[in-house]
Amino acid sequence: xxxxxxxxxxxxxxxxxxxxxxxxxxxxxxxxxxxxxxxxxxxxxxxxxxxxxxxxxxxxxxxxxxxxxxxxxxxxxxxxxxxxxxxxxxxxxxxxxxxxxxxxxxxxxxxxxxxxxxxxxxxxxxxxxxxxxxxxxxxxxxxxxxxxxxxxx
Length: 153
Known about the structure:
Blueprint: H1 4-9, H2 20-35, H3 41-57, H4 81-94, H5 123-127, H6 147-152
């Protein structure tokens, strides 16, 4: 977290730091920079003001807390077959191919396709922390399809 001060001064308002040791290091670095007066508190105030302004414009204070909303805690409804079918339809309708040379799309089931790379079957590289649970730690591979097995279906 050594570049924390430089990143804040460069205009970063929100840091998504996960592991306890990392956010504790981040916090210490940030506080040291403010206390040493190498990072003006006015810059922190500016970042906080912008973050809160966006949240206010989004109506976050007008709605009940997430834990009090109608579907709170009902994760079993997420990823049900109807939702997955709708998600697949959205993907099919929103995929962009810049040039369909030789009419490659739609892909034939008989076509051999190389799916390669470290993310081919790694769900964390596909969705990272933006998943059903914080950092996806409560999910398992059966919750999602990565490019590799999805090509097999």
